[in-house]
Amino acid sequence: MLGNFSYCNPTKLYFGDHALEYLNNELPKYGKNVVLVYGKNSIKQNGIYDEVVEILKKNDKSIAEISGIMPNPTVEKLYEGIDIARKHKADLILAVGGGSVCDYCKAVSVSVNCDEDPWEKYYVQFDEPTCEIIPVGCVLTMVGTGSEMNAGSVITNHKTKMKVGHVFADESIMPKFSILNPKYTLTLPKYQMVAGIYDIFNHICEQYFSGEDDNTSDYISEGLMKSLIHSSYIAIENSQNYEARSNIMWTATWALNTLVSRGKSTDWMVHMLGQAVGAHTDATHGMTLAAVSIPYYKYIMPYGLSKFKRFAVNVWGIDENGKTDEEIALEGISAMEKWMQDLGLVMNTSDLGVTEDMIEDIAKSTIILEGGYKSFTHEDIVAVLKQSL
Amino acid sequence: MLGNFSYCNPTKLYFGDHALEYLNNELPKYGKNVVLVYGKNSIKQNGIYDEVVEILKKNDKSIAEISGIMPNPTVEKLYEGIDIARKHKADLILAVGGGSVCDYCKAVSVSVNCDEDPWEKYYVQFDEPTCEIIPVGCVLTMVGTGSEMNAGSVITNHKTKMKVGHVFADESIMPKFSILNPKYTLTLPKYQMVAGIYDIFNHICEQYFSGEDDNTSDYISEGLMKSLIHSSYIAIENSQNYEARSNIMWTATWALNTLVSRGKSTDWMVHMLGQAVGAHTDATHGMTLAAVSIPYYKYIMPYGLSKFKRFAVNVWGIDENGKTDEEIALEGISAMEKWMQDLGLVMNTSDLGVTEDMIEDIAKSTIILEGGYKSFTHEDIVAVLKQSL
Q: What contacts A215, CB < 8 A, 6 or more positions away?
């Protein structure tokens, strides 16, 4: 049942190969002081940095920079950024990069005017901000996390060995605007591209595989999955196909901007397992998800059989004739597995460096969430991880 | 191809059988003076009026009322409302009703501070507002138009025999919040319920049947159509099924809040034909759409054959084996026709009072839009209308 929920997503999106021009529409809405945030040097190599700086200067902005945002932004880097944003009296924080840069900017935005320790307040206590928030804008250069249109932010604390995501409740923490130019994604190496595609697919699965009802969200999810599967085959044949990369980029945004979770309890155990594997191997996020997914879904299939049957028929076009529900459901998982192999995803955690003797430790650091078809115990986690080797 | 577009939809939605409670969250954001707008007496009979007024009073609001909003709000009624809102120094315009009430409130909101004639400015010249806009909130009691989460507003001018819709470009004209309680829709007579269901379906069709590309919007549209078809069969069996009515309500919002038109040229000729039939018969909007749809889609099918084939397979599950594209496409339209008959929709314009001698006049008043699979001439319009008798 759809039940009771709220939905609000005010981020303004500019999409397409001319999208950056619209930065000129947005900048006049904010004060003079912009903090420009990016990762390593790739945006300097591909020219995006120069284009953005030119537009900022044309709009008479004073620029401070935070560079070197890492794939898993650390709490130390957060403190550094808060300091820069405070000194610059930031009116706007402009993320130029992928989900990590965007996540990081949201963390800075809720911390600049916060008197408490932001790690403790937001990522341990999961408090909501009580201070004034600095607006965030985003120029997206990688695809997958959906951070460009949600209020999520993941920060890593190496001292306490915690990588924690906080999905803030207040929609004012979502980026005010995001610029999505699919051309920026064309230069991504294939390994990163397919890892991103699987991250998107799994975001949808995490929301889809929960609940027993005829929910509109599930139908939308099925549409998004079919679009993604279709475009992914075009993209692995020709990574320069703009149309396929456009559809992948747009699907990524809608896979995790809260729409398809409306009325759903949601699962997220594949992400918990994948993040634990990632913390012990430093492997690419999407690949950690891929490596645990098939064992996980086979393990929970009996507890959500009707949804797995529906997944087989509606997403993968499995013929139901003369088959038991279990057979249909398993054929769906097999079709998904074949697609993952076709993409060239990492299908086993051993290929990411996991060995049998690491499993107990990985299982211990796996956060267990409720909401999916099966309540997990430590033993369940161990069983799935063993299957994933 | 997805191409270049922007998307922004900041309306905050509260959904579910406790949704009205959240009016208490929203009211403190606005000043003291609220203009309460509604249609005839139904909200007084079913108690919604009393509940809303109680919440307004509890929040210490001063209330002025505009009542008697008709299904096709007139320009005279608009002038009357502007006058009331000005005298009350409105801080918030609160719509309690269906799409007509919501459309009307948006028209008032852009006109209160406007020095020019709003009919001339917004519905003849299609100008955007240059004045300050009064915020609109919505408590939705009927389902179909999507007006609760878009910037569209239809106003009728009987003197000039024009019923004109203006979809404003500025997202600040969208309702600031909308309260969607599916229980409010349970008392609607079946005729109105199925007319609303077809209105929703046709909104999706108008956007889906355009373009030749593999567009994510089309996949989302197919999901919404399948959800709607599924829930509609439950709703006609048992109109009190809360889950089905919930899914229908949620689908209606997403069918016309601009999401599924992103990257599409869109058609809207069924609406143009239906509105012309409506202007000559005063028939229910959804029924005018139903009565012209099958002749229209059969007429344009050869010009968009691959999409009609896809519609047959992806939405209606038509088996492609051993059939020509034309046969598959036609089977899809037949499946849609059977569903419409199952719902009890009006399938011919003659059943709405149209006679052969009226066709020339109806055709003359049909606005021709480009964007669909075939550019229409006056003769094409006449041919479709003749088929619809």
A: A1, A2, A263, A264, B247
A9–B contact, CB cutoff 8 A: yes
Mapping DSSP to helix (H, G, I), strand (E, B) and coil, where does residue A179 land? strand
- Rounded distance, CA B83 to CA B65, Å? 11
CA angle A320, A326, A332 (to 5 degrees): 60
At B241, phi and psi to the nearest 5? -70, 105
- The encoded tokens of residue A296 equal 């996980």
Q: Please name which of B64, B57, B67 lies closest in space to residue B86, comparing C-alpha atoms.
A: B64
DSSP string, B237-270: H-TT-HHHHHHHHHHHHHHSSSGGGTT-----HH
Asked whether the beta carbons of A359 and A382 are under 8 A apart, the reply is yes
A93-97, A307-311, B162-166: least confident range: B162-166
Distance separating alpha carbons of residues B266 and B261, to the nearest angstrom = 7
Q: How many CB atoms lie within 10 A of CB A374?
A: 16
Strands A152-157 and A162-167: antiparallel
Collapsing DSSP to helix, strand or coil, B169 comes out as coil
pLDDT of A248: 97
Q: Which of B309, B314, B287 is nearest to B297 (CA)?
A: B309
How far is the C-alpha of A2 from the C-alpha of B373, rounded, in Å? Answer: 36
* Residue contact A12–B8, C-beta within 8 A: yes
User: For residue A295, what is the enclosing H or E element?
Assistant: helix A285-300
Question: For the residues B253-277, what does the mean pLDDT come to?
Answer: 95
Q: How far apart are CA B49 and CA B40, in angstroms?
A: 11
Assess B317–A contact: CB distance below 8 Å, yes or no.
no
Alpha helices per DSSP H over chain B? 23-26, 42-45, 48-58, 75-87, 99-109, 118, 190-208, 216-237, 242-255, 269-281, 285-300, 305-316, 325-343, 359-364, 378-387
pTM greater than 0.90: yes
Tens-digit pLDDT profile for residues A147-194: 999 999 999 988 887 788 899 999 999 999 999 999 999 999 999 999
ipTM above 0.90, yes or no: yes
The rounded distance, in Å, linking the Cα atoms of A153 and A136 is: 12
User: Among residues 184-213 of chain B, which lie with CB inside 8 Å of chain A?
Assistant: 213
What is d(CA B270, CA B297) in angstroms, rounded to the nearest whole number?
Answer: 9
Q: Which residues contact A109 (CB under 8 A, 6 or more apart)?
A: A93, A133, A134, A135, A136, A173
Portion 233-292 of A in contact with B at CB < 8 A? 234, 242-244, 246-247, 250-251, 254, 259, 262-263
What's the half-sphere exposure (Cβ side, CA atoms, 13 Å) at A143? 34
